[in-house]
Amino acid sequence: MASDAKAAAKEVQVEPFPLSTLRHSVSHLMASAVAKLYPNVKFGFGPSIEHGFYYDLEIPEHSLEEKDLRRIEKEMRKIAKRSPELVRTSLSRDEARAQLAAQDQTYKVEAVDLIPKDEEITFYTHGDWSDLCEGPHLDRLDRDYHFKLLSVAGAYWRGDEKRPMLQRIYGTAFWTQEALDAHLAWLEEVKLRDHRRIGTDQDLFSVHPEAGAGFVFWHPRLGVVRHEIEKFWWEEHEARGYKPVYSPHVSRETLFAVSGHLENYGEMMYPAMDLEEQPYRVKPMNCPGHSLIYKDRGRSYRELPMRWAELGTVYRYEKSGVVHGMLRVRGFTQDDSHIFCTPDQLAGEIAGVLDLVKLMLTTFGFDYTAYLATRPVEKSIGEDAIWKAATAALGEGAKLAGIPLELDDGGGAFYGPKIDFKVKDAIGREWQNSTVQCDFNLPERFDLEYTDSDGQKKRPIMIHRAVLGSLERFVGGLIEHFAGRFPFWLAPEQIAVIPIREEHADYARSLAAKLEAEHFRVDCMDDPSHMNKRIKQAQERQVPYMLVVGEREEADGTCAVRRRGTRDQAVVPFERVLEVVRDLRSRRSLEVPALDT
RNA sequence: GCUGCUGUAGCUCAGUGGUAGAGCACUUCCUUGGUAAGGAAGAGGUCACGGGUUCAAGUCCCGUCAGCAGCUCCA
Asked: For the Aminoacyl-transfer RNA synthetases class-II family profile domain, which residue ranges apply (predicted)?
């Protein structure tokens, strides 16, 4: 560790430019190479980004393909050698505009007008190529660094879907070959963990053209995973005073007119179906239904807080280009809950929710960061005093729960402030699932009330919260987080029992029966294929433990335990195996520990 | 939805306008194997779907559906 830190410090000393500057300069280098190869190119923006850089460009006569990237890389190396000096120059606004217009760089002309009036307009030039850019940049392009162009895709000019679509080239750059290689290896790892690939390989889920894009079919092997998660979820919710509610998937359209979803969310909703001349809609959210339950009779302050939970399946129209495996779908189940409480109870309720979020995320092995999102500057509803109080209550709740908050200023919903969680998975990617939102809007729209101790009708606050977000997205993310190697309590098959020869099958079956009697998920692999093959199959299905049994084990009442991903052959009494797996399951442990005697 | 690419066996993929292919998986038989693929045979196809060009289309063109990389949007 110490030597790593020293090496890193040394690199910083040797290279006076930050990585983002390197990448920005390499994007310029790339642009100049493209200009050489395709003289009619028009340029958009070309910034450095988290893992590299991109440049947006328009080449009227050519659609770039992967193979063009190799040509461009070659040209880049040539240019870096031939014209290494990067020169910064400054022009007046009119000169800049005139120069870019003369070059027919229409997007760049527009870019000039985006620069604030009091700022200097600068260009960076190497060789005969020059780009409007505020910098900063490397001094020379022939410094020692390493880059690779990665992919091409379309991107709207200035991110606006009403504007022309440009071609975008993504690439990355590092100071050392090792760092570049490490990043490319990371990209490979991302591919290997792709839940769609693992989903197919391990027979977890599927989507079908017959059913439509964005509708997920959970296979039995993933069905158990979900079921285990749901059991865990209900256990923890019941322990915290949540009551299950169930609401219908289809309701009269008027319900969503009352809730405001028709007006504000209508584009995401499936169109109406008419029954006896009444329009009905499939629900895009669960909250209107829960509001109806609240409203069904008068409520007293004595009843509050009320915590209602539902694994509620909702349907939303998502544009065809955005559906993605289990992560972005058109029908999904939210682990939803609505808490109705008084303003005084808010902080305590928030603390309870945050505590639950912490427990659940930790159980799945996620690190997390929580963000407090405050009142948006544009449109939002409710009095400022309520916003202030609710925001303070969120902060206080977080304090009570011992969760530090980062600030997401102005990131709240129009109907109230919220706390969002970002989790970091096993390879450092961020996902957003958990959310806790205060809502002043729906109680208003549904005219929800309770009678307070002073006999006055008052408006409850509604907390919307989801811990996992949606089961589809969460489990899709889990597959990637665990790379298909689910912890013992979640594994589709927890234990494989493998008799070496057919004559050991009875012993194997007796062990399997004992495990099944305790409701472990066991595969007794007593088919007559070769043992090595069965071990390979179990290994490929990521079964946490294999119990290999032959003559010796049968004689001693033991089994040879092989752990997933290892070549362990620990011979232990079967009773010991039982102890360990009972413990792993009851603790919902993330470990698959080695067994020894 | 938009731009580009792709769609051949359950999976991964070859396939030059002229008779549909491989490996793995599957089925059957043989194999009795001590920790990641034993052997042989067999079965499996409306080349996504619908049009078109052509003597002839898996191959070329158009449309639809679906997938992939992004963009926009999102749990």
From this structure: 225-487
**Residues A188 and A283 both lie in one domain:** no
Domain contains A200: no
Last-in-domain residue among A139, A167, A192: A192
Domain that holds residue A519: 495-587
Residue A596 belongs to a domain: no
- What is the residue-averaged pLDDT of chain A? 91
> Residue A10: inside a domain, yes or no?
no
- The secondary element (H helix, E strand) that includes residue A62 is none
User: Of A335, A336, A420, A425, which one is the catalytic site residue?
Assistant: A336
Q: What pTM did the predictor assign?
A: 0.92
Are residues A95 and A164 located together in one domain of the fold? yes
Host H or E run for residue A448: none
What confidence score (pLDDT) does residue A235 get?
Answer: 97
A226 is catalytic: no
Whether A418 is catalytic: yes
What tens digit of pLDDT does each residue of A470-504 get?
999 999 999 999 999 999 999 999 999 999 988 89
Asked whether residue A103 falls in the same domain as residue A30, the answer is: yes
Q: How many residues does chain A have?
A: 597
Among A434, A472, A448, CA closest to A356 = A434
**What total of structural domains would you count in chain A?**
3
Chain B positions within 7 A of any protein Cβ atom are: 1-5, 11-12, 25, 30-38, 65-75
Is residue A287 flagged as an active site residue? yes
Could you tell me the two tokens for A16? Answer: 């006076």
At residue A398, what is the residue type? Answer: A
Active-site residue, from A226, A237, A418, A564:
A418
| pLDDT at residue number A14 | 54
- Distance from residue A27's CA to nucleotide B15's C1', rounded to whole Å: 39
User: Does the annotation count A281 as an active-site position?
Assistant: no
